[in-house]
Every structure is written in structure tokens, then in C-alpha cells.
Write a structure and sequence with these properties.
By secondary structure, the protein is mainly alpha-helical. It is built from three helices and no strands.
């Protein structure tokens, strides 16, 4: 009787672990895609933003909007604890 009651929490823990791994993998995937897109558009960004006659306030606003998402995702990825007992 006790073995069946112990298996339910173990199964729930495995399900939670799998969900956490999927969420972590999705975060890494989105971050990699964002960096890849940024690298592809770097030439155009330099041409249209940094060499144009835009004011420094506009450039700063562009930089803030461009970097905010990447910074938030990197902070989230940095705070995810490792999922193993090995230290």
C-alpha cells in the first residue's frame, strides 16, 4: 500500500521536472534566435541607426528597446538553478 502512495509524488515530481526543462529549453531557443536575428541585422542597424542623422535621444531609445528583451531573458536564464544534485 505504501509503495503506490509513494509513486504518485514521484510521478508528479518527474512531470514538474519535465515541464521545467521544456520551459528552460524554450528560453534558450528564443534567446539564440534573438541573437541570431540581431547579428543578421547588425549591418542595417549600423547604417540606418548609427550613421543616420538621428538625434542621440532617438538612438538611446532605440538601444533601450532593442536590448531590454535580451537583457530580461539573460537574467531569467541566469537565475534558473541547476536541476541536479551534483555540486
Amino acid at each position: 500500500m505504501s509503495s503506490s502512495s509513494e509513486t504518485i509524488p514521484v510521478i508528479e515530481m518527474i512531470d514538474l521536472y519535465q515541464l521545467a526543462r521544456v520551459a528552460q529549453n524554450c528560453s534558450v531557443l528564443v534567446t539564440a534566435f534573438f541573437v541570431y536575428d540581431w547579428i543578421l541585422c547588425l549591418g542595417r542597424e549600423y547604417q540606418y541607426i548609427w550613421q543616420s542623422g538621428m538625434s542621440w535621444a532617438s538612438r538611446l531609445l532605440y538601444l533601450c528597446t532593442r536590448c531590454t528583451y535580451l537583457l530580461s531573458v539573460l537574467l531569467v536564464l541566469a537565475t534558473i538553478p541547476p536541476m541536479s544534485d551534483n555540486r
